[in-house]
Amino acid sequence: MRQIVRLMIFALLIMLMGGAGAASYETLKMEATPLATMPIERAVLSEGLGVELGKIQDGLTLDIRSDKESYQLGEPVILYVTMRNEGQQTASVLSPLDPEYGFVNYMIVDASGEERRFLPYAHIDAENPSQQLAPGEVIQGVAKIFFGGDGWTFEEPGSYQVYAAYQDSLRSNTLTVQIDAATDQNSAEAADLFLGSEEVGKFLYFEGGDHLKEGVNLLEQVARQFPDTPHATYANFALGNNLLTDFANFQTNQLRRADPTAAVQYLEVARENPVSSYYTVQTYLDLSHGYQMLNQPEMAEEMRIGLENLATSELQPIQNVVELVRIRKSAELNMIT
User: Fold this and answer.
1) What is the pLDDT of residues 172-219, one digit of tens each?
2) b/e burial code for range 52-72 (CB count within 10 A of at least 16 → b)
3) Is the pTM value of this prediction over 0.85?
4) N or C, which terminus of the chain has less Cβ within 10 Å?
C-alpha cells in the first residue's frame, strides 16, 4: 500500500529508486512547513489508531544498534531499531519505527549531559499504523539520525548516548555512538566540507537531489580530492544512487534522464571502499539495478550473488540489514509516488 505523505518541514525528498515521481516531490519540499512547532512527545500521533497511548503491553522490548563501533566526524550514523514481543499475548502497537513517522522518539545525550530529541527532517503519515504483534514476532526499522530538522546531529567528536522511546512506557537500550576526530588532513578537510554544508546533509539524507547544486559540487569534490576517506564512499554512493533515476528539476524546468553508465561508475568506486552495512547493501542493490538498465544481466547477477555472500559472511553479519534496507526503500518509494 502507498503511504500518505504530509510535508511538515523545510523539505522531504527521499531518493531511493524514486524515479520521476521523486522529482515532482522535490519541488513540494521547498514549500514544506517547519516541524519544530509540534509537541516533543507524540509529535505525529493522532486519534483513532486503535492503541491507547501510554499503555504498553507487558513483554514488549525495544532495541537499537548500529553497524559500526565508531564513526569519523562527518560520517552518516544509521541505526537499526527492533521491537519484539517477548510476552505471552498479542500486543497492539504502532509502526513503522523510523523517526519520520513519530511513533518512536530518538533521544541523544552529548558529552556535556545535555539531552535533546532528534528532530526528523520530515513527517510521514502512516496509512495503517496499528499492528498486531504476536508473541515472538518483531518489527524492525531504520533511523537516519545523522541529519534532521536541526541540521547535522553530530558536529563535534565525542561519545554520544542514544536511546529510543516508544510512547510513554517503553524505552530501548542506551547505545554509545562514538564520533572520532579526523585522523589525517584529508579526512579533516572532507569532514569540514560535509558539516559545513546543509545541502550535503540533505543530499546524503535524501540520497539524491539535482537541485542541491552546492551539495552535489561538494560531494563531487570530496570524491575527487579525498578518494581514500570514508566520506568519499558516501559521496560516491549518493551521487551514483541519484543518477539511477530520472529527475525533473522544477527550478530549471528541465528533466534529467537517468544515466546508469555514470551511476555504475560512482557505485563501483563506493563498492571498493565499504563503510557500513547499510550503505554496502544499498550499493549492491543499486549496482544490480544499474547493470540491468545497461542490459548486462551477468553483472547484475554477480552483484546479487555478492550481496548474498555478504549477508552470510561472519566478517559482515548483515543478514537482517538487507531486508531492512528493502523495507526502507519500499516505504520511501510509496512516500514519493
Assistant:
1) 999 999 999 999 999 999 999 999 999 999 999 999 999 999 999 999
2) eeeebbebbebebebbbeebb
3) no
4) N
Cell of 34: 517547519
* pLDDT tens-place string over residues 225-245: 999 999 999 999 999 999 999
CA–CA dist 14, 22 (Å, integer): 7
Q: Which three cell numbers stand for residue 207?
A: 540520497
CA distances from 7 to 34, 93, 117, 118, 301 (A): 9, 24, 20, 17, 38
Residue with cell 546543509: 198
CB 72 within 8 A of CB 184: no
In the chain, what are the domains?
Answer: 4-34+184-336 (1.25.40), 60-180 (2.60.40.10)
Residue type, 105: N
Mean pLDDT, range 104-126, rounded to an integer:
93
